[in-house]
Amino acid sequence: MTEKGPAPQMTSLICTLQDHRDDVNWCAFSGELLATCSGDKTLRIYSTRDFSELPFSPLSGHGYSVHCCCFSACGQFLASCSTDATTMVWSMVTGDIEAVLEHPGRSPVRICALSPDSAHLVSGASNGTLALWDFPSKQLRRTGAVTDTTMVACSFSPCSQMFMTGSTYGDLRLWDLDMNQLQVEKNAHDLGVTCCAFAPSILSGGSVVQFRLASCGQDSQLKIWAINKFSSGAYKMQLLHTLTGQSAPVLSCVYSSDGQLLVAGSVDKTVTVYDAKKAVLLHTLNQHERYVTACAFSPTSPLIATGSMDKTVNIWKLEDGCKAHEGKSLPETSALTSREAGRSKLLVSDWSEEDVSAWLVEEGLGGLVDKFRANNIDGTELLSLTKETLASELHIESVGLRSKLLRKVEELKSDSVCSGIPDEFLCPITRELMREPVIAADGYSYEREAIESWINTKNRSSPMTNLPLLTTLLTPNFTLKMAIGRWKTTH
Q: How far apart are CA 246 and CA 37, in angstroms?
């Protein structure tokens, strides 16, 4: 039985979409859009800003029920599949059909998945066949099959080089892009698999690269697997956790974009939210009136969409319960008689322009105050100063003065590190508190700007392990960002 642990976030229902006229079968997010598909043969597209429906929505073109939909990485295209034996590609600029991909054998298509790099599309059908398409050209590249079953689940690995399928037979199968079966886990779920989803990050150490996968099924269980790839090329699949937080078949599962959370929808009408790393149940959501068939996480904001046979889509927001300090100006209560005392309660990155000016005076650099004020230098800009910016933008001509200032800034950074900031909140590259943490392919979190610069200027190796990065994709770590926000409000 899964233990219920403390919840790091509050989850609130922010709106309910009631436009479909039949069961909602799938939900998918891009950075700016939400797509839903239904037994009513249509797809509906919403803006994630206010969840208003786009002018070209609904999308009509399929002849029968639409089972699944997925966005390309850039959000420019949407793929959808249907009982009508086709997978359609839609433009998210115009709503027009870009391509109609007819499944080999004309069997009803139950599942489709796009690779994270948008190079490949897989479609799986009711007769157990698989089709691998080159997505840019929309040409069929490979076919495969598992006899006497229906393909109902598919997910690409974060490196885009392999994908997992699940079937009504109950098996999970790992495939490469040549349609070779790399690993087979028979009887992964008794009575059948219903969904599977790779975690977005890749763990590497020594001669082993590890992926995480969630799967759910008719056995009312949600399972978390480790998939180990060895330097020899061999694969091994290991069951890590079996989660039993729902009392009926689990129909859908999905990881958050930072891999920290796992959400599942069930025939018991509930949506469960788990800590994916600790396998602890955080929330059980009870707003749907019938089976929950679909779950999706936004890649850019803390939003969850859940679809149901009650014909509705619920939009949930994860909140940390603490209002993080926003903006660069200080609260009025910080303007104490002793400015230094007020400043000491803040991180340097939260200093106002006035705090920076006061610090310059205290460090014997009062002559720079006017230049700093003219350039609106606050705490964040102070920490990012370089010899080049001091010379070219602030026009500080004295080499000695520039060196002294940079030395004092380095002391500030060192003081911050020694002031009790949890180490996991510091970027491994800059050793500064992260503002936009992202997860790289090595499984570590970095400040986005720092790791992007590393990837652009170094060879593609991990700053932490020195092993090659299998992909340069970076995933926002919203859970860590919220934890940093909570920490800042209490320190």
A: 24
pLDDT over threshold 70, residue 330: no
Cα 304 to Cα 51: distance, rounded to the nearest angstrom? 13
Burial readout 52-81 (b: 16 or more C-beta within 10 A, e: otherwise): eebeebbbebbeebbbbbbbbbebebbbbb
Flag whether pLDDT at 325 surpasses 50: no
Tally of helices (H runs) and strands (E runs) in the chain: 8, 32
pLDDT of residue 415: 59
Quote the CA–CA distance of 120 and 113 in Å, as a whole number. 8
Residue indicated by tokens 């319960």 = 321
Gyration radius of the chain's alpha carbons: 25
- CA separation (Å) from 479 to 164, 372, 461? 26, 34, 25
Which one, of 160, 114, 167, 118, lies nearest residue 144 by Cα? 167
Q: How far apart are CA 410 and CA 352, in angstroms?
A: 18
Helices (H), 250-331: none
**In angstroms, rounded to a whole number, what is the distance separating the alpha carbons of residues 168 and 147?**
11
Label residue 346 by pLDDT band (50, 70, 90): low
At 197-231, the pLDDT tens digits run 999 988 876 678 899 999 999 999 999 999 999 88
Say how far apart CA 458 and CA 454 lie, in whole Å. 5
CA-to-CA dists, residue 108 to 82, 86, 316, 325, angstroms: 6, 7, 32, 52
Q: Indicate the helix (H) or strand (E) that contains 395.
A: none
* Token digits of residue 204: 């590497």
Residue 202: per-residue pLDDT: 87
Q: Virtual CA dihedral for 186, 226, 157, 438, nearest 10 degrees?
A: 160
pLDDT at residue 8, rounded to an integer: 47
Residue 125 neighbours by CB under 8 Å, 6+ apart: 85, 103, 105, 107, 108, 109, 110, 131, 150, 151
Q: What is the mean pLDDT of residues 183-206?
A: 90
Q: Which secondary-structure segment (H or E) carries 7?
A: none
Residue 388 tokens read as: 């080049």
In which element (H, E) is residue 160 found? none
- Count CA atoms closer than 13 A to 6's CA, side-chain side: 3
CB atoms within 10 A of CB 314: 22
Give the model's confidence band at 336: pLDDT under 50 very low, under 70 low, under 90 confident, else very high.
very low
Q: Cβ distance 42 to 66 under 8 Å? A: yes
Whether the pLDDT of residue 460 is over 80: the answer is no
> Would the pLDDT of 469 be above 60?
yes
